[in-house]
Specification:
Blueprint (H helix, E strand, L loop, with lengths): L2 E8 L5 E8 L2 E14 L2 E8 L1 H6 L4 H15 L8 E4 L18
Antiparallel strand pairs: 1-2, 1-5, 2-3, 3-4
Length: about 100
């Protein structure tokens, strides 16, 4: 599975982000929200995805976590160079018939 984050667009509400992700050759649009909670003396950022995001990545938690980290970086005004490839697996071809192991788990 090839995954590339194309765009992270903050909305007028600074805790809501629209994310454009290409998975293989299909473009997906997700909405992710940032929630800030205080636990003891620490502020914790929690990123939640919409239903489409949750369904798309329910078996690929590593990818969901990477996208969530990008949202957190964007929220914190940390520079990110997009597009960014998150995971690329080699494809099996006639000359390369090796076993493809999914490293997302």
């Amino acid at each position: 599975m090839n995954i590339q984050v194309q765009q992270i667009q903050p909305t007028e509400d600074d805790k809501i982000f629209h994310v454009s992700v290409i998975i293989d050759d299909v473009t997906h649009q997700f909405t992710l929200t940032m929630k800030i909670v205080q636990i003891a003396d620490r502020l914790i950022q929690i990123v939640n995805g919409d239903t489409h995001f949750l369904e798309t990545f329910k078996f690929h938690q590593k990818i969901a976590r990477q996208i969530s980290q990008l949202i957190s970086q964007t929220y914190n005004n940390e520079p990110i160079e997009l597009p960014i490839n998150l995971l690329e697996e080699p494809r099996v071809t006639e000359t390369n018939k090796s076993l493809v192991i999914n490293s997302a788990f």
